[in-house]
């Protein structure tokens, strides 16, 4: 009876659960359907530019354009059609373009958000009444298209791109009709529709649209009742329907109308809807897996264990074979992977930037390693893209299928799968297996964790050995052996224990170390004053008695003496025998040699008095221990000693109170204290501080005990630890590769070519062959679900991982339990529950990742198409994450990786996550460019828009791109607004500028084109920015006062419940920089708002402003108000985590370093950071002590590998100091750290030569022909812009600088002689500010990406030509590789003494990893190809050519001659140094010629002009002839041009040489051979040369003194003076060089110039001359050098 009743109850409970399940499923299905009248796919009321465009409106601009569109779209082939040309310029044409742009932007945004096809051409429309209350009008068929604007010179306009994707049925419309009309829709309507489309594709009928409409009519009338009489296929514009219009309609049957509407048509997730129906059919089994936990339904048939709990996992105890990851993973991410194996439902809370995609990728790799099938589901396409890209980086993308808009076309998906079967690839396992590397990792982690555990395991009541190392005295050597002392003290009682020792130490020393007559006494603790008085009285009595007594040694002997004295006197006995016997005893007792009667009589009383002594003496003895009593008794033999003792005892009683205190403490304190003190008495000096030593001794004892227990601490464990740490890091990297290879090999080995070819001999082979045949089909292709149901195992073996949206899952995969071993849900906070349950049914276990602090699910842009007020309530749906968190405690990801600077995440961290995110502190703060930039505006809020801010946003984007155009490194940019209207305004202004501003178009092309979608600029409002991230985020707050000066305090969706979550999402999108453009003072925002959103906005604006102003205190105060757990730091108080840190801090401070403690504004702190001595805004080194931060790590891997990687990725240099090393030898450890600090300071201060990125330019002709047309003379450098930073006022100016300045910069960058010795009076450019012109020289920051061009020799050109041509590269690649090689040649040329390896490292310094690989590949490839370069000289084989590949910087003939004279002691070292200086040799180059200290070389270079002239005069007269002097004059000229010499130096030295050459030549050495001056025909080459030279210097008329000219030539015409002087200075020629005495030269000049000012070239003449120059160069009438000089001067005339 009882059993029957139980069975009945059991059955009833099961039925209750079934009904509950069906009720829940029905509820969620109804929520999913979305067949209400707001859905424009169901009831299309009117055109909204944001969502749709009526193609019929184009007919008035382009007749029959709709027919053309129809024909194209029905071909179902990929094509493109320009349907609205840019050339159309009639009334309303711009309105049409504006509507198209609005629609295009919205479609792109939705597509980027969802990854689904969003653009459709909908026609024909089905309209009519589903019932009397529900009217439908919507497109029946949707053709996938994309809308694109092409800006081009010819044929530009708006294009429709037709895809080869198949058209789809409007599922939302069919579902609405099915529900509202209560019609039974056939299950095979899609298959029938596919057949219709296939038949259409085979048709060759000319009017394809007519055929299509005919077949559609036949198809639909079998599904819904159709009134053919009302069907109209004539093209017409769609009329607007109002609510009243619909209410007034008469009941209409369904009919078709030929409206053609372009746009977005939200669907009803029809496939998900179908799955709910199937779930309800399966509900009776209650076998719903993880859904039972989520919707609180259980199966009474199942035996349930207790609710799952997440116990803390000790990661180091878990074998690494449980973590088969391909990306770095921190402890929180590792825990997710481990928990997914223990529990069927795991919830992950992933705050912004904490690596959700990273942990998802690792979940996938771990599951694939274990042969599991994985499905990743997310409603946002961007999140799936990130996961796919991460999988691609580790070589797993081939086995992953992304179900996106492309794979909606099953043909493409089948093609991908077939390619995987046909060519799976080969993936070797490598030298180690996964098990082997895992075992090694486990061993390393075990060793590392052992040391970590040993250092931080608690002993002796709560102390770790790390703490003991920290507090123990360095290099302490034990003096006491405490092993035999029973120390009962523990760590927390130690201080009190030592205080007790300290309190008793002096008493002990007083009473135990000094002469203490009371030593050995009993305790006086219980005594009082009465006892003290009694003792004194007793001592006095003893003293009195002692003075009148003779004492025996004992009381007994005293009594015997009395008896013997009595016998002796009174009882002598017979023959005085008794007397003799008594005398003998008396003699023995008193040690007398003779006893006489007289003695006895005289001392009888004294002996008798002694009897009274002993009772008092015994009382005194009781105050001492037995040993002391014995000692005192011995004193009785000597009355004087005893009396002295008694006097001492009495006198010492003055210390009675101290004695009592001492006794009391000994009794109260642990007995070990007394033992320790006696140890100290034996081993230590009384002057030492025993309590301090005892403390150190206890530390030493404890350290020794712990080290004995932990063998890992013995010897030198830190060295072994460091080796293990390095080895672990390497093994983890190796394992990643092995995991990748194992996954690839397993999947690649699933199927082979023989499996799909030949005769099928087994069911398995037959299945593979049939499956591959199905995948190859091009026509009559099975639907994916149908094919999947037949070949699910085949599908999942070659593609075990799928990434999909919820709709795609239900569309492709059959509704089958445990179809996937693991389903991962990303961005679950945005996923509505009703969209998730069907795909979760397919899961064996689930990981749900999201963040409830971010956006909740709602569909703002899909359904809400009206122009409603932005403050209208938006219903926040319950998300899957909300549901899951109730059932399972979430695991929070802890480390923030996204933001480069902590400023970008700090507000979110403290405002939303209580500061618990682990954020890397800033290694450097740039006061000029803070991470957050506050940009105030005076905007006005009008119609939910702020035009001023919109314009400022465009200006800021333009400014960013212009700045970046100088380097070619363009950051990605995102613009976020707080409402849709402001977003549309900014987007519109951006597009308008792009259409009308040519320079902006060019910037846009450089910055955006060719980049991935996730790097292109976006314009979004806060509702749909989740999942996006960019380098720079620009906020347009928008809200401002209106034209009346009133601020409304209305903030749209931000004011609603959960509005703060939207803010949290928006402010966490920036990777590098955040710009806040705001028109209000934050204080205007009221803090009394009902919801939290506006208050958080105000706080964020306050934070941004303070952060932009580098107001650290203000920032901390704002954050501390939000997060009460964050205390504002007090700069006057140093924070330390341990005494060990304090010691390190003090030691480094004593070395003069500025050290900051506990760096960071989050839960993660860096213990110590050393500030760069020359830059207070930068840290040079992070120091971690092995204290709390070390111990806080959840695993050895995180502590010893990941944390260091994390810091180094943010720019930190990292060093760890071990407490054990510091304890053993702090000096050595400090020296090591100081050396590292100095090394980092040196590295950070070293000025590496600037290697300019080669600019890739599309060559108009073959680049080699162009190069070979030039001669081998050295080209001068092109003139880019520089940013001048005035070193006094810090004002940045972008200015074109002079060629000399540019050459000076290049010389400095590429290792030429430093200009430190230049004359400070050197001319300063006018572009400098007036205040700084007379002060120091400003620094130059090179921002041009144009490489300095050099003219290489013909052999180099030939070698490069052969090299790049051999690889059959494109023109752009040829140009790029040539630029790389030529620039490297320049670097080698200017550094001939450096090795190849050093130069190559210098060349790629500062480049990205990809650029380094490219540069090294090109250079090494060229060297290997030519096989004519060596690492030392890099010369072309001189046997084939005397030309050198790279010009050696050998000494000139002048230097060589001088060097020989130096060897013969004919000149001094200083004279040779001066000649090297004049030739522009660097200090190091000079030192190789003149082997003297560099300081002496610098001293010569810094001599005054007069001193240099004296040296030059001496060396010239001594060793050089006239020809040599002319060469030196030429050298002077070139050095002056390069600004190696200042004006005064040049003029002084030049005058000396010309004086020797033309003046007093008595001391000059005669030329060995007189050379007749060369006579030049005026009409020959010299004439051309002079003419060219005149053009060169016509614009330079000032700066030459007439006296100088007259002194040189004696001419009168200023122009002639100028010309001749310039020629003399620049080219080193004289009148004699030209023609004898120079008369012909003068004639030539006079023919060219007159006094008439009009002969100076005009701009028109200069322009004409400039146009003729290229032809002159081509005809070789002028050299390249002359060409450049003339060109530069003509351009100066034109543009000055």
Topology diagram in text:
Layout: H1 2-33, E1 52-54, H2 65-74, E2 79-85, H3 93-114, E3 120-122, E4 125-131, E5 134-139, E6 141-150, E7 157-162, E8 168-169, H4 171-180, H5 189-202, H6 208-221, H7 243-248, E9 255-257, E10 261-263, H8 270-281, H9 291-294, H10 331-342, E11 345-349, H11 356-369, E12 374-377, H12 381-393, E13 400-403, H13 410-422, H14 434-456, H15 465-471, H16 491-513, H17 529-547, H18 555-570, H19 577-590, H20 597-621, H21 626-635, H22 639-652, H23 656-668, H24 671-683, H25 690-709, H26 717-748, H27 753-756, H28 763-776, H29 784-790, H30 792-798, E14 801-804, H31 806-812, E15 820-825, H32 833-841, E16 843-850, H33 860-863, H34 880-887, E17 891-892, H35 903-912, E18 932-936, H36 947-965, E19 973-977, H37 980-996, H38 998-1007, E20 1018-1021, E21 1030-1036, H39 1059-1066, E22 1070-1078, H40 1092-1108, H41 1112-1122, H42 1139-1150, E23 1155-1159, E24 1166-1172, E25 1175-1185, H43 1188-1192, H44 1196-1209, E26 1214-1217, H45 1219-1224, H46 1226-1245, H47 1263-1268, E27 1281-1285, E28 1292-1296, H48 1299-1309, E29 1339-1342, H49 1354-1366, H50 1371-1390, H51 1396-1403, ...
Parallel strand pairs: 11-16, 11-17, 12-14, 12-15, 13-14, 15-16, 18-22, 19-20, 19-21, 21-22, 25-26
Antiparallel strand pairs: 1-10, 2-7, 3-6, 3-10, 4-5, 4-9, 6-7, 6-8, 23-24, 24-25, 27-28, 27-29
Helix pairs in contact: 1-8, 5-6, 8-31, 10-11, 11-12, 11-26, 13-28, 14-26, 15-25, 15-42, 16-23, 16-25, 17-20, 17-22, 18-19, 18-20, 31-32, 36-37, 36-38, 37-38, 39-40, 40-41, 49-50, 49-52, 50-52, 53-54, 54-56, 54-57, 57-59, 58-59, 58-62, 60-66, 61-62, 65-66
């Amino acid at each position: 009876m009882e059993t029957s009743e139980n069975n009945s109850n059991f059955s009833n409970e099961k039925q209750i659960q079934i009904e509950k399940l069906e009720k829940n499923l029905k509820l969620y299905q109804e929520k999913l359907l979305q067949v209400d009248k707001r859905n424009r796919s169901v009831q299309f009321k009117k055109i909204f530019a944001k969502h749709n465009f009526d193609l019929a409106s184009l007919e008035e601009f382009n007749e029959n354009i709709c027919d053309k569109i129809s024909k194209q779209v029905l071909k179902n082939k990929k094509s493109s059609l320009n349907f609205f040309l840019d050339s159309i310029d009639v009334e309303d044409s711009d309105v049409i373009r504006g509507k198209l742009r609005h629609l295009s932007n919205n479609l792109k945004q939705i597509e980027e958000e969802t990854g689904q096809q969003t653009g459709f051409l909908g026609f024909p429309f089905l309209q009519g009444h589903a019932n009397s209350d529900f009217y439908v009008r919507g497109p029946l068929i949707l053709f996938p298209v994309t809308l694109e604007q092409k800006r081009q010179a010819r044929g530009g306009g708006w294009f429709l791109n037709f895809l080869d994707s198949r058209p789809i049925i409007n599922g939302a419309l069919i579902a609405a009709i099915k529900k509202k009309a209560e019609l039974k829709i056939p299950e095979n309507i899609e298959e029938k529709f596919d057949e219709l489309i296939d038949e259409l594709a085979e048709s060759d009928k000319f009017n394809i649209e007519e055929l299509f409409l005919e077949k559609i009519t036949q198809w639909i009338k079998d599904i819904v009742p159709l009134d053919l009489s009302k069907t109209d296929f004539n093209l017409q514009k769609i009329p607007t329907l109002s609510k009243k219009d619909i209410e007034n309609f008469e009941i209409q049957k369904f009919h078709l109308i030929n409206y053609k509407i372009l746009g977005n048509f939200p669907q009803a997730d029809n496939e998900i809807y179908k799955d709910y129906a199937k779930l309800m059919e399966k509900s009776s089994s209650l076998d719903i897996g993880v859904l039972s936990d989520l919707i609180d339904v259980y199966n009474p048939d199942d035996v349930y264990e207790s609710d799952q709990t997440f116990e803390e996992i000790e990661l180091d105890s878990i074998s690494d074979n449980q973590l088969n990851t391909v990306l770095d993973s921190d402890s929180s991410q590792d825990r997710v992977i481990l928990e997914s194996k223990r529990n069927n439902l795991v919830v992950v809370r992933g705050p912004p930037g904490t690596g959700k995609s990273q942990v998802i990728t690792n979940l996938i790799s771990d599951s694939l390693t274990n042969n599991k099938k994985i499905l990743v589901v997310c409603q946002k396409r961007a999140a799936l893209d990130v996961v796919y890209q991460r999988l691609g980086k580790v070589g797993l993308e081939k086995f992953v299928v992304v179900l996106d808009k492309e794979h909606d076309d099953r043909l493409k998906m089948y093609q991908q799968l077939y390619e995987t079967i046909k060519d799976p690839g080969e993936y070797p396992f490598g030298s180690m297996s996964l098990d082997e590397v895992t075992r090694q990792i486990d061993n390393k982690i075990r060793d590392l964790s052992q040391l970590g555990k040993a250092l931080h395991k608690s002993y002796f009541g709560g102390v770790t050995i790390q703490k003991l190392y920290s507090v123990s005295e360095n290099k302490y050597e034990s003096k006491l052996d405490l092993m035999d002392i029973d120390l009962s003290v523990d760590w927390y009682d130690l201080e009190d224990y030592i205080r007790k020792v300290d309190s008793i130490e002096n008493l002990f020393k007083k009473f135990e170390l000094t002469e203490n007559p009371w030593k050995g006494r009993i305790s006086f603790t219980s005594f009082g004053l009465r006892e003290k008085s009694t003792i004194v009285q007793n001592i006095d009595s003893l003293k009195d008695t002692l003075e009148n007594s003779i004492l025996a040694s004992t009381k007994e002997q005293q009594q015997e003496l009395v008896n013997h004295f009595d016998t002796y006197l009174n009882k002598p006995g017979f023959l005085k025998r008794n007397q003799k016997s008594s005398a003998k005893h008396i003699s023995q007792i008193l040690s007398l040699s003779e006893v006489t009667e007289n003695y006895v009589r005289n001392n009888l009383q004294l002996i008798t008095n002694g009897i009274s002594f002993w009772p008092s003496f015994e009382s005194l003895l009781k105050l001492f221990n037995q040993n002391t009593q014995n000692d005192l008794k011995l004193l009785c033999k000597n009355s004087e000693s005893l009396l002295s003792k008694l006097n001492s005892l009495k006198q010492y009683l003055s210390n009675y109170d101290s004695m009592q205190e001492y006794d009391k403490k000994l009794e109260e304190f642990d007995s070990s204290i007394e033992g320790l003190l006696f140890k100290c008495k034996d081993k230590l000096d009384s002057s030492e501080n025993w309590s301090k030593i005892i403390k150190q001794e206890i530390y030493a004892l404890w350290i020794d005990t712990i080290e004995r227990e932990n063998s890992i601490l013995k010897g030198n464990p830190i060295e072994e630890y460091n080796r293990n740490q390095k080895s672990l890091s390497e093994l983890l990297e190796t394992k990643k590769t092995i995991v990748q290879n194992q996954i690839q090999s397993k999947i690649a080995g699933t199927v082979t070519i023989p499996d799909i070819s030949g005769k099928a001999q087994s069911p398995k082979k037959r299945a593979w062959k049939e499956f591959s045949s199905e995948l190859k089909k091009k026509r009559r292709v099975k639907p994916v679900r149908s094919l999947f149901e037949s070949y699910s195992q085949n599908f999942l073996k070659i593609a075990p991982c799928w990434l999909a949206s919820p709709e795609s899952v239900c569309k492709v995969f059959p509704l089958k339990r445990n179809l996937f071993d693991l389903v991962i849900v990303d961005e679950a906070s945005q996923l509505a529950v009703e969209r998730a349950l069907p795909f979760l049914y397919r899961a064996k276990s689930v990981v749900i990742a999201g963040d409830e602090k971010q956006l909740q699910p709602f569909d703002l842009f899909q359904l809400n198409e009206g122009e409603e007020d932005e403050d209208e309530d938006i219903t926040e749906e319950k998300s899957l994450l909300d549901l899951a968190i109730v059932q399972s405690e979430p695991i929070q990801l802890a480390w923030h990786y996204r933001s480069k600077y902590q400023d970008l995440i700090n507000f979110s961290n403290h405002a939303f996550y209580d500061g618990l995110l682990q954020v890397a502190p800033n290694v450097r703060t740039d006061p000029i460019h803070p991470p957050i930039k506050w940009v105030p505006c005076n905007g006005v809020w009008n119609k939910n828009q702020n035009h001023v801010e919109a314009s400022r946003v465009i200006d800021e984007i333009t400014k960013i791109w212009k700045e970046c155009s100088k380097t070619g490194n363009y950051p990605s940019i995102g613009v976020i607004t707080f409402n849709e209207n402001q977003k549309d305004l900014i987007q519109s202004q951006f597009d308008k500028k792009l259409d009308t501003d040519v320079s902006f178009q060019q910037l846009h092309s450089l910055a955006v084109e060719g980049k991935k979608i996730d790097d292109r600029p976006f314009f979004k409002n806060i509702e749909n920015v989740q999942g996006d991230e960019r380098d720079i985020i620009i906020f347009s707050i928008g809200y401002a006062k209106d034209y009346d000066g009133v601020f409304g305090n209305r903030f749209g969706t931000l004011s609603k419940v959960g509005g703060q979550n939207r803010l949290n999402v928006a402010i966490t999108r920036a990777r590098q920089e955040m710009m806040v453009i705001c028109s209000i003072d934050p204080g205007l925002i009221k803090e009394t708002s009902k919801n939290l959103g506006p208050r958080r906005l105000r706080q964020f604006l306050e934070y941004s402003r303070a952060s932009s102003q580098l107001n650290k205190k203000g920032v901390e105060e704002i954050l501390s108000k939000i997060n009460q757990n964050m205390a504002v730091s007090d700069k006057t108080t140093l924070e330390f985590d341990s005494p060990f840190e304090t010691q390190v801090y003090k030691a480094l401070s004593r070395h003069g370093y500025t050290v900051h403690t506990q760096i960071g504004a989050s839960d993660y702190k860096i213990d110590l950071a050393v500030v760069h001595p020359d830059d207070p805004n930068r840290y040079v080194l992070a120091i971690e002590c092995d204290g709390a931060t070390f111990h806080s790590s959840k695993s050895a891997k995180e502590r010893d590998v990941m944390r260091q990687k994390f810091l180094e990725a943010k720019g930190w240099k990292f060093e760890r100091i071990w407490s054990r090393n510091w304890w053993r030898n702090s000096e050595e450890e400090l020296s090591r750290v100081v050396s590292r600090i100095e090394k980092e300071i040196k590295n950070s201060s070293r000025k590496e030569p600037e290697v300019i990125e080669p600019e890739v330019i599309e060559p108009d002709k073959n680049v080699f022909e162009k190069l070979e047309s030039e001669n081998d003379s050295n080209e001068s450098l092109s003139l880019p812009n520089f940013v001048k930073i005035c070193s006094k006022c810090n004002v940045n100016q972008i200015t074109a600088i002079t060629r000399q300045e540019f050459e000076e910069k290049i010389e400095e960058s590429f290792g030429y002689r430093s200009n430190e010795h230049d004359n400070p009076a050197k001319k300063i450019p006018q572009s400098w500010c007036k205040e700084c012109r007379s002060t120091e020289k400003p620094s130059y920051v090179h921002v041009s990406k144009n490489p300095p061009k050099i003219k290489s020799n013909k052999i180099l050109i030939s070698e490069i030509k052969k090299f790049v041509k051999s690889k059959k590269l494109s023109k752009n690649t040829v140009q790029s590789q040539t630029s790389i090689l030529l620039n490297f040649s320049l670097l080698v040329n200017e550094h001939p003494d450096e090795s190849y390896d050093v130069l190559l490292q210098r060349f790629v310094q500062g480049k990205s990893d990809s650029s380094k690989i490219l540069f090294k590949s090109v250079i090494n490839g060229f060297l290997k190809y030519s096989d004519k370069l060596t690492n030392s000289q890099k010369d072309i084989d001189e046997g084939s050519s005397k030309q050198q590949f790279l010009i050696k910087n050998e000494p000139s003939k002048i230097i060589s001659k001088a060097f020989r004279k130096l060897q013969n002691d004919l000149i001094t070292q200083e004279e040779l140094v001066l000649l090297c200086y004049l030739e522009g040799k660097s200090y190091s180059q000079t030192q190789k010629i003149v082997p003297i200290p560099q300081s002496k070389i610098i001293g010569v270079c810094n001599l005054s002009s007069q001193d240099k002239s004296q040296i030059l005069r001496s060396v010239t007269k001594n060793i050089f002839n006239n020809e040599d002097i002319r060469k030196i004059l030429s050298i002077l000229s070139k050095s002056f041009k390069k600004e190696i010499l200042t004006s005064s130096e040049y003029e002084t030295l030049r005058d000396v040489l010309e004086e020797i050459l033309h003046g007093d030549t008595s001391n000059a050495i005669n030329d060995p051979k007189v050379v007749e001056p060369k006579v030049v025909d005026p009409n020959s080459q010299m004439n051309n040369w002079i003419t060219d030279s005149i053009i060169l210097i016509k614009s330079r008329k000032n700066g030459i003194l007439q006296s100088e000219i007259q002194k040189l030539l004696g001419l009168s015409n200023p122009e002639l003076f100028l010309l001749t002087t310039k020629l003399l200075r620049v080219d080193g020629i004289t009148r004699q060089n030209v023609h004898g005495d120079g008369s012909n030269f003068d004639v030539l000049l006079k023919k060219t110039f007159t006094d008439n000012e009009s002969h100076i070239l005009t701009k028109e003449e200069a322009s004409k001359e400039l146009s003729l120059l290229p032809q002159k160069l081509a005809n070789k009438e002028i050299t390249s050098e002359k060409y450049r000089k003339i060109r530069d001067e003509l351009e100066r005339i034109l543009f000055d």
